[in-house]
Amino acid sequence: MSRVLIVGAGGVGQVVAHKCAQVPEVFSEIMLASRTKEKCDRIAAQLPRAIQTAKLDADNVAETVALIKEFKPDLLLNVALPYQDLHLMDACLETGVHYMDTANYEPLDEAKFEYKWQWAYQDRFKEKGLMALMGSGFDPGVTNVFCAYAAKHHFDEIHELDIIDCNAGDHGQAFATNFNPEINIREITQRGRYWERGEWVETDPLSWSMTYDFPEGIGPKKCYLLYHEELESLVLHLKGLKRARFWMTFSDQYLTHLKVLENIGMTRIDEIDYNGQKIAPIQFLKAVLPDPGSLGPLTKGRTCIGCLMKGVKDGKEKTVYVYNICDHEACYKEVGSQAVSYTTGVPAMIGAMMMLTGKWMEAGVKHMEQFDPDPFMDALNRHGLPWKEVVK
Ligand code: NDP
Questions:
Q1: What gap in Å lies between CA 193 and CA 200, rounded to an integer?
Q2: Which domains occur in the chain, in start order?
Q3: Torsions phi, psi of 278, nearest 5?
Q4: Which of ligand 1's atoms lies nearest the C-alpha of 135?
Q5: What is the position in ligand 1's atom list of the atom closest to the CA of 102?
Q6: Whose alpha carbon is nearest atom 1 of ligand 1?
Q7: How do residues 146-188 score in pLDDT, each as one tens digit?
Q8: pLDDT in tens, 81-102
Q9: From CA 298, how far away is CA 95, in angstroms rounded?
Q10: Ligand 1 atom closest to Cα of 84?
Q11: Interface predicted TM-score (ipTM)
Q12: Ligand 1 proximity of 56 Cβ (cutoff 6 Å)
């Protein structure tokens, strides 16, 4: 029986609220707080049981501290934007509450995707006996757990890791992103990076691609090498790793639009002066693009995200592919969101459940692969993200 404060009422917040409400034996009291209270109230009205809602500016530490003191949660589950991570961690430290998120901290004016800012909280969380769980979404999140699972059950050493994220869905729009457009475009337009023989190798943005034949009828799709934040912790924690890469599928239509937007300066994250007002072009772009939440009823098809791992067991070479396939329309039917929000929100709920039931609890700033993967893998099967494996 625990109290959870969910911060952020966007696409992912909607799924997290639904999924936590489905597990009253763990989440006995729920509060959903976000910048726009109406969004929290709209989500609350869809749920099978009553939850509390509140207006909160998560960048204002004093405001979060006051809300925590009023609601007294055991855990703060952060599904606002990466910019809020440090402010929310500060509020948790001040009030003695465990913390969890789904994306690493990013400064507004730099698209960096590094854990260094959150790792700097290690000693403070340890001293207070509090845990901060990093990145409990799908990627990062489930992908880290798939690696831990394979390391525990299939390999003595994993030598090569390819995380492959495929969205084979179609929303019928000329150009739209499936989660927050600003965060999504910042991630895709940065330089690519992968890890090989102990060092990071950089590539030009979206300059490397491969075709991967996805299972269960999804078929071959072009995937592009990106840097993704889970690589940073996985290269530290996976024994014997020689190469780690991350790939994502994009359609030609998506990439053509993105190229044009980039070429004309619309993806810039630095502020420009417009009629005496400072605006970052990417924030203006976000305001004119379709709201990812509005894509829910329009999106058809499936996502397939998995980890392809090569390594050795008892001196023999082995290949293991662990993956989940998720259907956009089935997600919308269950929780009113498409699969990209669903595949993030379900693991966020499960990460919170692991912490609150004591299955994963250790003071400090922690990553998903540092814990026993078995209870998490079991919970994925029970809460809407069943996984499969192919072992060769
Ligand atoms: P949305 O933009 O749909 O939602 C973000 C929510 O946060 C909105 O409700 C927004 O409020 C709220 N918010 C923003 N700033 C503040 C603030 N200062 N104080 C309070 N609330 C605030 O994003 P998503 O739901 O798509 O994504 C949520 C998080 O999930 C992001 O961090 C994203 O990076 C992460 N993510 C992780 C994935 C993974 O697999 N690990 C995959 C996809 C997303 P308002 O409604 O007023 O704008």
A1: 6
A2: 2-134 (3.40.50.720), 142-336 (3.30.360.10)
A3: -85, 125
A4: 41
A5: 41
A6: 10
A7: 999 999 999 999 999 999 999 999 999 999 998 888 888 888 8
A8: 999 999 999 999 999 999 999 9
A9: 42
A10: 18
A11: 0.99
A12: yes
